[in-house]
Amino acid sequence: MSDEVEIPESHPRYHSLLTRHRIEAGVEKGITSQQGLIAQGRGEAFDYLLGEETISSADRAARAAAAALLRADQPVLSVNGNVAALVPDETIALAEAVDADIEVNLFNRTEERIERIVNHLRAHGAGEVKGLTADARIPGIDHERAKVDADGIYSADVVVVPLEDGDRAEALGEMDKTEIVIDLNPLSRSSQVASIPIIDNVVRAVPNITAHARELSTDSREELERIVDEFDVEEALTAAERVIRSSPPSE
Ligand code: ATP
User: Fold this and answer.
1) Residues near ligand 1 with C-beta < 6 Å?
2) pLDDT category, 6, cuts 50, 70, 90?
């Protein structure tokens, strides 16, 4: 992360404060919704209990996610207002590492906010960003929330949906895609319906998937398949819940 605010790095809550500042700035710029602030608060509480670090089961999930993305035919990274505010550069780096498309996909969808996010990502160096065409619908959810690009999320075989709303995560899961969810709450519906739930903060998880993807980039398709097949969803969810329920916070 860059140091665009004046928070001393020695501050015990440095990363947490920086993350909070980025969300606030996202709201000011009109890329993050007001509900995004609430989602951030909920996420922070879980992150506090996880010790604000990537637990080993989340690291294994990030590795499985990297393998799934590398062996995908059409991977797409979904970006919402929180992701755009928190990890624009890291999302672009991941898209490059696994040759994925980026699609802006909002729960509280307005054309204006989508355009702002597309422009924000382009200012950070993204090439094509999908999301404005919205010429297909995810079956099973109401009209506005169902809109996606036909040649993007709709036809993707692997999608990364960080901080996704539970309804849409469920509907996407029913479309027979490999759904990679990044969410700090192992009990959220999004985490529960994911093919690969990564119970971690997006600010750590996205660069971690990229690092794994770089390391796995020369592996054979069979080896990538093996890594994905060996990933245990239940173990990932219960390990995170165990940490949250049992360990004292790290400070
Ligand atoms: P459900 O999936 O159970 O329907 P929800 O739609 O009620 O969940 P929201 O209130 O929309 O969930 O909250 C968004 C989710 O995003 C929460 O589960 C929260 O833990 C998670 N979250 C928020 N900030 C982050 C972050 N920085 N990294 C990862 N996850 C986050």
Assistant:
1) 39-40, 42-43, 46, 86, 163, 165-166, 182-185, 188-190, 201-202
2) confident
